[in-house]
Amino acid sequence: MPPPPKTVTAAELSKLEQSFAANPTSEAWYPLAEAYLAMGRHMEAMVVCRRGARINANSPKPRLLLAEVYLAQGKEAKAKEEAEAALQMVPNDIAALRLCGQVQMKLGETEEGTAKLLAAARANLTDMQTQAVLAEWGIPLPVPPPMTVQAEPTFSLPPSPSFSSSPPSPANPQVVARSLPSQRPVGAEPSPVSAPMPAPVSSPRATNSMPPTRRPQWVPPEEEEEPKKRGGPNMALWTLVFVLVGVVALVAFYGVGRYQKAKRQEVNNHLRSALEQFKHDNHVAYQRVVDDARKALELDESSVAAHAYLAYAQAIRWGEHAGGDEALREAEKHVAVAKQSSEAVSYTYMAEALLDYYRGKGQQAEAALAGLVQKHENEGKKPAMLLMTLGTLQMGLGDLDAASESLEKAQGFAPDEPRVHAMLARLARQKGNVSEAKRLYELALKYERTHPDSLIGRSWAMLEQADPGLSYIVAAEDLGKLLGGKLGLSTRQEAMSHMLHALLVARISADMPMFKSEFQESLESRTGVGRDKAENARKIATAEDAARIDSQNPELQLVRAQRLAAEGDVDGAIKQMNQAILAQPSLPIHFHIELARLWIRKEAASKEAEEVLRKTQLMAPRNPVIPVLRAQVLLAQRKVDEALSVLQVATASPTTKNPEAKVLLARVFRDHKKDYSKAIALYTEAAFEFGKDKTNVAQAHVELGITHEKAGDLQKSKEVYEQVIRENYSFERAYCLLGDVLEVSTEAQDKERLQKLTASYLSVPAWAQQGECAAKMQKRSAANAANAANAANAVK
After folding, report:
1. CA-to-CA distance for 714 and 712, rounded, in angstroms?
2. CB-neighbour burial class of residue 376 (10 A; exposed 0-12, middle 13-18, buried 19+)
3. What is the pLDDT of residues 464-490, one digit of tens each?
4. C-alpha to C-alpha distance for 504 and 521, rounded to whole angstroms
5. Among 328, 330, 336, 387, which residue's Cα sits nearest to residue 358?
6. Sequence-ordered list of residues with C-beta below 8 angstroms from that of 352, at least 6 positions apart, any chain
7. Among the residues of 512-605, which ranges form H helices?
8. CA separation for the pair 759, 754 (Å, rounded)
9. Cα(794)–Cα(247) distance, rounded to whole angstroms?
């Protein structure tokens, strides 16, 4: 059993976490994982151990600690896998033997477990931990082998020849046998060392009854009888040949065995390296996977895993990184080879599904992969990567609810995979939930600090916010890292980074005048975007020109459309999106949804927006975003009952989360039907479904406060606004709404509360103070100051 865990104070834990965060590649992971394990925080311990295993692929330490984590969770089978993997690295290590044996005993494998525990004990009989485990399972401590003392050889001179009248006693045949070799021919060299021979035993009776022994006669060597020859010289020669052939065969067999073992080990090393690179999920890592898989195939062309890894890496490079036709051909070739084998490797089917999806056969690929996932789940497996790929396909096909289910399962099975978190973030963006997307991209970056797709996605999500504010600076920092030339971006990633930089410049240039002067200066110094419109236009043109290195990527046209819309050119944005869709009709559903959003922004364009949404819903009937947009269009046309019907259908299923639809449905009940109780219930449900998305939770609660206010419950509305401020102190709208309620209140204590609220508003960051709300709160602050001055003068 492991030693009792060392207790860690909160300060010590914080120091360990900071050390690990500052340098995740250092050895700081080990004490942090130990601390988490000691505190019973098994999930965090498991994540940190996995990180340590990636950093120290050839060390048994992370695997042993991870085995202890699994053991503490009661996951003995998982613990056995990790302990045996560590034992393979260090077969004679006491800790590995002890832990592996302990796990096997818990699994009921008593024979194997006992053998390993005894092996650990024999390696060090004084090890207290091993003794404790043996005692726990009632296994006696092995007895140390007795010490053997080798006797020193004795030497004695041979006895003088004597000729007895009686031979040795037949009762002692060993004496006779041992005495025969001493009867050597005369002339032979005497043995320099011989054991003393026992003296012959004679008895008077034997002497009287036996005839006298004759003295042996000397025979000259040339007269000795020649021994009989067996087989002649040929037999001896053949014997020698057979012996030599046997020796050569044994040597060859041993040498070939060692060579085959070394080759298998090298193949496995390349495959492990490839798997490790997949976790990094970047252009350089996928190229390394290709290199490792090719090297493995040079050593063993029948390796199904190597074919599968190579196919998947090349499918990603072709579909996502603009890898070219060579990547496509190699992916197709290795998928075909891997599928000929009876050995099933998930990466084979993931590669095949991605190839079909990117070639426009998304429905076929999704159906095949969904069947395979179901088969794995029925067998009790946890196919995290298959689920992630399935979710990616479902998202592209517009089935966002199914994609959410698949990706959330994958996240549960593989919580440290950055690609899974990034896909969930992309899903949130497509739902229009950009604040949740930002949070999920940050989670991916927690596990892979320079994950290019997450840096790109986070900056894009922040630039899609209605009022980015401080997010402009974070987006600029992300784009600076991407364009700094140190992350090894693919052509597609580099082009997208340039195009997003153009969007950043356009949005800051448009929003700059509405910020306070101090924040304007901060923006200019930290983003490089100033107040000169002409200079900003030049930067935009330069960035978009640089993005032409990947002119075939339709995502660039989507970003350009967003840039045109930010500059007020909605018609130009719609034209850009129509061109992209006409050029590639099989584009993912979110392109059509973005086009509908642009039409909604145009006044008197409801019919066009409704037509786009009608066609889009035919392509993706299960997409939850489309009903919300359709309802917005219907409300703009004053078709309240139709909008109500659409939203009620969208929120009817109790198993489907659609908080955006519930927020809009609540507004219909509040503002059009005056049914405040239904509106309150829907806003409450929506806030709960938004979960960890603080911004949207705050928005839903603010709308809830307004509903209470309209229903005449001012006390409840004040409580809701105050809750929003406590949970999200920079949410400016809550300050203004609470101030309005306190200002009209007749209660004496509310006047004092208004003064405190106005004073606390001054601590809101400068980037959050803007527009009508800021002007109103500043006016109240000035009034408070004037009242305080008047009161002071009155006292004087």
Report:
1. 6
2. middle
3. 988 888 899 999 999 999 999 899 999
4. 16
5. 328
6. 311, 335, 339, 365, 368
7. 517-527, 533-546, 554-566, 570-583, 589-601
8. 9
9. 117
| Orientation of helix 625-636 relative to helix 659-667, angle to 10° | 20
Of residues 123, 685, 590, the one with CA closest to residue 398: 590
Rounded to whole angstroms, the Cα distance separating 547 from 496 reads 7
pTM over 0.85, yes/no: no
Beta carbons within 10 angstroms of residue 79's beta carbon: 26
> How many CA atoms does the CB half-sphere of 12 hold within 13 Å?
12
Q: Are 717 and 708 in contact (CB under 8 A)?
A: yes
pLDDT value at residue 770: 65
Cα–Cα–Cα angle for 713, 718, 722, nearest 5°?
150
Q: Which amino acid is at 742?
A: L
- CB neighbourhood size of 481 (10 A): 16
Answer for the pair 107, 80: CB distance below 8 angstroms, yes or no: yes
User: DSSP character for 199?
Assistant: P
**Gap between the Cα atoms of 54 and 21, Å rounded:** 16
**Residue type for position 225:** E
Contact 660, 627 (CB under 8 A): no
Asked whether the beta carbons of 777 and 770 are under 8 A apart, the reply is: no
- Distance (Å, rounded) from C-alpha 256 to C-alpha 250? 10
What does the pLDDT look like over 319-359, one tens digit per residue?
999 888 999 999 999 999 999 988 878 999 999 999 999 99
| pLDDT at residue number 208 | 41
H helices then E strands: how many in the chain?
38, 0
616 closest CA partner among 641, 603, 636, 599: 599
Q: Exposed, middle or buried by CB within 10 Å (0-12, 13-18, 19+), for 290?
A: buried
E strand or H helix at 706, and its extent? helix 694-710
Structure tokens at 524: 């200019």
Distance between CA atoms of residues 73 and 769, nearest Å: 49
- 469-472 long-range contacts (CB < 8 A, ≥24 apart) are 469/765, 469/767, 469/768, 469/770, 470/765, 470/767, 470/768, 471/438, 472/504, 472/507, 472/508, 472/511, 472/523, 472/527
The contacts of residue 216 (CB under 8 Å, 6+ apart) are 183
Alpha-helical regions (H) of 651-693: 659-667, 676-690
- Residue 326 tokens, joined: 């060579």
**Structure tokens given for 627:** 């009903």
- 81: nearest Cα among 97, 103, 98, 61: 103
Q: How far is CA 145 from the centre of its chain?
A: 49
The position carrying tokens 């004759």 is 214
In angstroms, the CA 202 to CA 158 distance is 21
Q: What is the C-alpha separation between 617 and 629, in angstroms, rounded?
A: 11
Q: What is the pLDDT of residue 44?
A: 74
Give the long-range contacts of residues 128-135, CB within 8 A, separation 24 or more.
129/1, 129/2, 129/3, 129/98, 130/94, 130/98, 132/1, 133/1, 133/98, 133/101, 133/102
Residues in the chain predicted with pLDDT less than 50, given as ranges, are 1, 148-230
Length of the chain: 796
